[in-house]
Amino acid sequence: MKNNDEIEIVGLTFRAIHAPGHTRGSLIFSVSNEIIISGDVLFAGSIGRTDLPGGSAKDMENTLRKKILPLADELRVLPGHGPETTIGRERAYNPYLKNAMRG
């Protein structure tokens, strides 16, 4: 899939959002505008590593600023690892999102 591609599964619409940083091809998925499946881009209190081959701290900061921060606070986030969170909780407590807000 590529940016803005959509697929419907069991009545839910999954929209792909290109979110480079952890890897060049990282995608997150918006599910019916209620949930974000963030994979290894955003975790509760952290973000995915950018120091591995294909990762980029600059791309991750742009993804956080342009793709994650504009999302609604009430959106549930289902990361690739760890507990569920919300955009609002991460905006308030995630040091990487706080840094992206300042930048």
TrEMBL record:
Keywords: Hydrolase, Metal-binding, Zinc. Residues 5-81 form the Metallo-beta-lactamase domain. Its cofactor is Zn(2+). One of its GO terms (molecular function) is metal ion binding. InterPro entries: MBL_Glyoxalase_II, Metallo-B-lactamas, RibonucZ/Hydroxyglut_hydro. PANTHER family: HYDROXYACYLGLUTATHIONE HYDROLASE GLOC. This is Unannotated protein. It comes from freshwater metagenome.
